[in-house]
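Form 7-S
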Amino acid sequence: MTIAANLGYPRIGPKRELKTALEAFWAGKLGEAELQSTAAALRAGARAVQQGSGISHVPSADFALYDHVLETVCAFGLVPPGYGWSGEGPVSLATMFALARGRAAERAAGIPGDAVALEMTKWFDTNYHYVVPRLSAAMRPRLLDDRWTRALREGLQHGTRTRPVLLGPISLLLLSKTEDGTRPLDLLPAMLPAYADALRFLAEAGAVWVQVDEPCLVTDLPSGAEDAYRTAFRALAEAAPGLNLLLTTYFEGLRDNLQLAASLPVAGLHVDLVRAPGQLPAVLEALPRDRWLSLGVVDGRNVWRTDLRAALAQLRAAEAAGFGKRLMVAPSCSLLHVPHSLAMETALDPALKRRLAFANEKLKEVAVLARAVDEGEKAVAAALEESDRALAEARADERLHDPGLAARLAAVTPEMERRTSSYPSRAAAQAARLGLPELPVTSIGSWPQTAEVRSLRARLARGELDKTGYDAEMERMIAEAVRWQEEIGVDVLVHGEFERNDMVKYFGEQLAGYAFTKHGWVQSYGSRCVAPPIIWADVSRPKPMTVRWSAYAQSLTDKPMKGMLTGPVTMLQWSFVRTDIPRETVCRQIALAIRDEVADLEAAGIPIVQIDEPAFREGLPLRKADRDDYLRWAVACFRLSASPVRDETQIHTHMCYSEFNDIIESIAAMDADVISIETARSNMELLDAFAVFDYPNEIGPGVWDIHSPRVPSAEEMARLAARAAERIPRRRLWLNPDCGCKTRGWAEVKPAMANLVAAARQLRARAV
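Output:
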């Protein structure tokens, strides 16, 4: 019988219950028992939904209070010193959250010292952030918190034998960083006994299947990784011989790692046929017929409904190749990356809604496909016909395409994708216009989105406040923010973005081609949730989007004011994107819209325009062989958006939580006058790329980690800035936070920004 399986379910709750509970817990308004009770209720609800949808293999231990990578290292006791853990016994919630958020967040728990939060970075090419483990040879991995057996037993108590999800040892190590010169894979011998214990206890508790996630198998493996995989899975198979291990890969095809994956001693293999449909014939040829084959034919990362007939054809091919009695149907990856359910989306265009499938709808698609394999198409005829109608309706929708926009795209010339002059000429013109001091201080853009700001937005939406009254309140807040920045000595000001709900949604709401959900939340990290817009048609800008607020802010001060925009690549990456045309085409459409806004900001007298591209590296293909084409069009799209201005207008961009070493030349090719990047959590490690490569323009390394609630001292920020000055000439160095401050409170932002200004003054004085 074909098995309908799921790889993972959204954690945050249909109404963001986990977010609410976490933030109440961190604020001291909710106890640990209540937090865990909320988490248990969310897990119970997830199991019920999956079983009710016809899923036979329901995952467990896919839930995490903050991040599954973080909880894995805590379960194995892989905690660096300084976070309040003695080295014995289970790691406390206080320590786990200190690792994620910094020591100041857990002051009440008595954690000594002032440890900074661990680094965060993107989970492969998604917008989910994981906490990067920091390992050393001195650590003694052992199973201190058997979260996998506990999750299995929780399901059994409620009548469900779940399939526990375990992040595999090789991917865990390859996703980690070491601090003593040890190569991550050198730690494998010490790690394997802890993994063996986890599997042995699962077998004793009644587990039948365990899902071992090894997403690194779809990447270019480093030297020694193949032998490490063979060693690791031989040990895992020997630890619990009666346990069925499902080796799970996703986000790409296995390619040159296919023979390795097919040779490992596991009961089954999962492959992603959404991101890499062409790998199916090779997989069918390579995988032994005594293995189970799990095919990810339902898209776990996008919101479009599945072409059921096309997916069924893939499953039939596997059946014909001899896997008919050992076949699993599944999403391509965990459903962590899509919203919970369409059920609450009552305001969407009905025609568009018929084309969509969120997590709960995707589960039903999986179940329908499994049934179709076993019982034939007649058994699911209604579902197949509904799928056909939705696809046909989408193809026939004339609203998808704008002939005028197509003509404009066709008329883009190479000259439109570059500035008039080279950087040295622009820098001289900008210096004359702006008159900035050495080491100018600025911020990334947003100031706190307080309860007052959110209340005003809600009142406007409910009709309790008219637009005139709302705009007056926004002007008041902007004026207060401008005055405060002038008082503390910030050199380049921002208006604060109080009027913006989200850096993508705010723009998407003013662009043609975008649609928005009311409850389409997905987790970005911890309690941070985003509701990605849906790009369903051609994208264009009907009218200016930000000029009114930036011009008002500039009118209040003689200091330069930055206009703040989100770049085309990030607008693409942080949306659910249509699949009927190439992503490059969609990105170029967005670039033209942003280009028009840049030109209008310059015409309104704004001297600096920041085009944020935090998702630039996120879009990078996982395989090096595929990257040149992406970098070509991504750089071109940024330059198309940034190049309509005169030399004296300064273009900034911002990137965060990404490794730049392997794409530094492409970042330079973007030709922004100033780039600001995250460097605080990595202790300026990310600047190593700029030391090796002579980056020609100006750089603002973040010296304050805004994702942690701690307030760094002026001395700490000056130390980080001085370290940056060892790699970057001071004349090309800016000082700024890592990211925007919308998620922080004024109680943290005001002293931190004052300390940042003080740090700049300290460093300027040292140069005298």
